[in-house]
Design a protein that fits this description.
mainly alpha; Formate dehydrogenase/DMSO reductase fold; 9 helices; globular
Length: 303
């Protein structure tokens, strides 16, 4: 059996980073789903797409707050991470070789796309038209979705390139965090639109999409345990098995709900609306808890 060599002190991350990873995944996932809904070709998906862009804004705003709190630095020092104020050497402080610098700048770029799209959605809801014509809005959303995919997977990749046990023992964390973030975002959007007649058309689509993301997430969880076991650090996951159980329960709930919506469509939409709403609440909360539990199990098992 191959045993990985680790020689770097653990970062001693706290709940700040945990929720940073959580909200970054939801923000990025919501933006990607908003883009996909907008590209569905059905105008009835537009209200849900607008909600997705609106949701991504507060979830993104909270990320630098949590990141700064975890670093234990002032906002002025955080600003130095982006702008070099050294006399005679001023300018943007971008270090392509530094994962932290790349991540901070990616978050800034993503924040630009999120802010514009959220304002466009808010304005569109108020007066029926946003600030960007749809012919330009879709390419803009595609570019934003590409950055969002990077944000959602970057947090996992950042862990993988470290030299910590568990994190550096597997190559799946980027994909796992991406699938988990998309699943959590789909569950959150389903929870928010369940009582909105103008957006409820997209409810089934979101549950089905959540099911697809959950299949990928489950597959990557299995690969995670296989690779960590091969590296000889599987014992570190034992104390965190309750959290992994919550994560798997969220995946299972998502798959059951997705299958139920597929059956409803196959039978012409039979079933009561109230039953769907009740399932949506329970499943969405379970999925979101699973997303948080998965990140907690991965982050804290290496420390």
């Amino acid at each position: 059996m191959y045993l990985a060599e680790h020689f770097v002190q653990p970062p001693q991350w706290t709940w700040y980073i945990l929720f940073y990873f959580f909200f970054a995944g939801l923000a990025a996932g919501a933006y990607v789903l908003g883009t996909l809904l907008r590209f569905s070709g059905d105008p009835r998906d537009e209200p849900a797409a607008s909600i997705a862009f609106l949701v991504s804004f507060p979830a993104t705003v909270i990320c630098p707050v949590l990141l700064t709190a975890d670093l234990g630095v002032s906002w002025w020092k955080f600003w130095h991470m982006m702008v070099d104020v050294t006399p005679g050497d001023t300018g943007l402080n971008f270090k392509y070789w530094s994962p932290m610098s790349v991540g901070v700048w990616a978050l800034v770029v993503f924040g630009f796309f999120v802010t514009v799209s959220a304002f466009d959605a808010w304005l569109g809801n108020r007066r029926g038209a946003g600030i960007i014509p749809m012919v330009l809005n879709r390419p803009f959303n595609v570019l934003g979705a590409v950055v969002a995919i990077f944000i959602a997977s970057y947090t996992g990749v950042l862990l993988s390139v470290s030299n910590q046990p568990v994190w550096s023992d597997t190559w799946v964390l980027g994909g796992l965090f991406l699938a988990s973030g998309l699943s959590g975002a789909a569950a959150l959007l389903a929870l928010l639109i369940r009582n909105r007649p103008d957006a409820s058309f997209s409810l089934g689509r979101l549950h089905q999409a959540d099911g697809y993301f959950s299949v990928l997430e489950l597959a990557l969880i299995i690969v995670f345990f296989i690779t960590v076991g091969a590296a000889g650090t599987l014992a570190r996951e034992v104390p965190w098995l309750p959290l992994w159980a919550i994560a798997v329960a969220g995946v299972a709930g998502s798959l059951v709900e997705a299958r139920g919506h597929v059956r409803m469509q196959a039978t012409g939409g039979s079933g009561t609306v109230a039953g769907v709403r009740l399932d949506t609440v329970v499943v969405s909360i379970l999925v979101l808890l699973g997303v948080l539990a998965l990140r907690a199990a991965v982050i804290f098992s290496a420390q």
